[in-house]
Amino acid sequence: MPPRRRTPRRPRTAATLLAAALVGAVAVPLTTAAPVQAATGVRVDLRVLVVTAGDPSSEALAVQLEREGVPHTRVDLRDAGRPEVGAAFLVDAATGAGRYQAVVLPSAAPAGLSAAELQALADYQRRYGVRQVNAYVYPGTGTGATATYAGALDGAAGRVTDAARADGFSELSGSFPVDDVDPGVLEVYGYLAQPAPAQDQRVTPLLTAVSGGRSGAIAWELEADGREQLMVSAAYNGSMQWFGTVGHGVVSWMTRGVHLGHHRSYFDVQVDDVFLPDGRWSVPANCTPGDDCVDPSVTTTDIRMSAADVQRLSAWQREQGFRLTMVFNGGGSEAARAQGGGRDPLTDELLARKGEFAWVNHTWSHPYLGCVQIAPTVAGQPWTCATDPAQTPRQDPDVPAQAAGGLQWASQEFLTDQVRRNADWAVANGLPGFDPTELVTGEHSGLRTANQPADNPFLAPALQAAGVRTLASDASREAGQRAVGAALTVPRHPMNVYYNTGTHQEQIDEYNWYYTSRADGGSGICEDDPATTTCIAPLPAATAAQARASFDTYLAPLEVRNALRRVLSDDPRPFYAHQSNLAEDGLLYPVVQGVLQQYRATRTADAPLVTLTLSGQAEQLRRSARWAADRARVSAYLDDEGVHVSAPAGTEVPLTVPADARASVPLQSYGGQRSAWFTAPTTDTVVAVPATARGGYVGSAPTATPTPTATPTATPTPTATPTVTPTPTATPTVTPTATATPTVTPTATATPTVTATATPTVTATATPTVTPTATPTVSPTATPTVSPTAAPALPGAPGIGTATSGQVLDRAVTATARWTAPTTGGTPVTGYRITATQLSLLGWPVRTVVVPTLAPADARGAEVVLPVRGAPYRFTVQAVTAAGVGAASKPSNTVWAW
């Protein structure tokens, strides 16, 4: 069997300038503040307003909304024909419905918005309880904070506060890195801030950072003037890793956790050419024999995995809790068996461990399935398509040709046979989970390329005949999904570890060839296309040790960043490498492991990486594309009843709600939320109801009527001023004994007249009614002072105890979770929420189930029914108080549902 060959793919450029422009911020004057309360009796459409000035930060937020599929309207302040952002734009005059559930501005008061527009936005947010994100601000007047440092934040250690995790950022475990790709380039300019609330303001740090021994907030929530705003003081753009890490949290914060859209972090690595050998790069000749070497005297030894390589892969997968997808060619196995007298150690080892991998058809023998290729005769020239059956030199002389459109093509019969033979081999060898409707052709051949401007006209009918419905394509050539006959493509991202390298020296030598100038001994390709490619100084590779150091410190981190950027962008497209990268020096391992480690370092266990099948990836891409086209026809809003959705028949809609929401559509838990795609009803239907009020337009605040512990005594004083001090936990009405009942109704937008004879203090969350104890004397100049107090703190994390396996009750299996009480922040615990996480046999989370009934406040253990027999589980526990649900405990030990 000849080695596989293809044109080597050049990695993405090593030096990318990641800089963000500064956006000035001018503070809006604040009036007397009142705490943000639940707005009852209002309707708010599930759509976000993004006002942008073309600045990197607001544009990044628009990109994040698009990635998740959150409907949004974009207003560009640079557009002279933009609409006026006034009351008519924000509210439907006929129904009184608010048109936007959140607002994004470039800064707290961008210059492109008039004073009237800023006032209209503020009034709208107060009326409907809508939150605002100010994409990039200077911590100064009106922001609730002051700057303690200004400058580079590259490489800073970021942290997510407990308050943030309780309000939108629930999938994050705590820490995250701020980008520092190139030490010689300023990438993240920003400000570290300290809260400096004015009177009647409350400031809550959400994201903090430590840089050069200095610490401060880089994102905080400001509650003032009946509004909630998120201030961000560190620069970012849509490609930055730190923004990719926190971006979904910003979306969840601004929408209060209720929005259309779907968020997951996907990661699938597909290994091509399994069972085949691959050609090897020639370090002296700077080419690959059988591919682009024009000198027939240049030879190298092919690269093929060994049985020991399979054993290493198996151990690595168990250690990492991650499974690779084997894209295989059965013809390679049969050729090796024929050469080995009926036995091939690689095949034997892979088939002995076949249950440890996923499997995808890569055709029987990996021929080029496009046009008949005519090989170049001059170094550096590309191959061309044959126009005549007698034309030479052919790169694959054994491929049967069929004429169409003036070119010679791999024939339809040959294409169908290549697919079917490999599928039959998979069935004969019992490859688990094999799906014959999925296919990856060799080099994605058959599809159009730069050298072949059209698909092989016989490809679509061959796929139809073989029953293929999902076909891989190359994302570096075609990023979008398209139909090929009845099949849908799945663009795959190349992991730029070269197919023709098995050692560090080969990899670095080939990289140097493509990315250094002619003067430095390279190909000079980087000089020929300076707009997209940057020349670098040659990486050291004279010895194996130097080459490994260059790979570990430069190339592997570069590829980890490239891959992680896509993982953090809700992109379901898979990555691909080659079997040669699992042989010899194992070049693929540090790249995949780097992605796993960096992602898992920032996420909770219930936000795992999701690996879809090729068909699942095609379906997710199809749904997303269809949703982008259909979402303008969907009606979705939130009112006191819940989330309403309706759409034309057959419309698939993505929905995200808080973990405690009740829903009539099936939703899956992920990252502390619940979300899924569902087919929308055709009539207005409530599909989900948030279980607890979340402020603003999400639910109604509960009303409590406490009994005062003492009756205030009255000493008539004509100028007395009652002080009303709201807190966000209840709406009490305090009515002492009185001979007269004047009413004091303070609000944030007016100055009421107060009539009183004493100075009672009332603690409330809404408009309290104060009835003093004596006949009042009217004082027309009295003015109430509204002073919010700090919200009760959320409870801390309980201490986790030892979990034990339980017993079989009827057909259910139980286990017992145990814990110790946490600090409560002054508010009594009302119960404990228990979460059971089912693990895979490799120890990675499979699914998370929240026990529907809270354990009693005095409980320190609870028996939990485990849904899947024979599976491992672990538990976390959260305390619940009137202030909300507290931080989760550490995970318990693992127990088994026997």
Offer a few descriptive terms:
single chain, 898 residues, alpha/beta, nine-stranded mixed β-sheet, eight-stranded mixed β-sheet
- What is the typical, i.e. mean, pLDDT? 85
Tell the overall outline. globular
Helix content: 10-25%
Could you give a short account of the major beta sheet? Answer: 9 strands, mixed
Radius of gyration equals 32 Å
**Strand elements, count:** 46
Number of helices in the DSSP assignment: 15
The parts where pLDDT drops under 50 for at least 5 residues are: 7-35, 700-791
Sheet with most strands: strand arrangement? 3-2-4-5-12-11-10-7-8
End-to-end separation: 49 Å
SS content category: alpha/beta
Bin the strand percentage: 15-25%
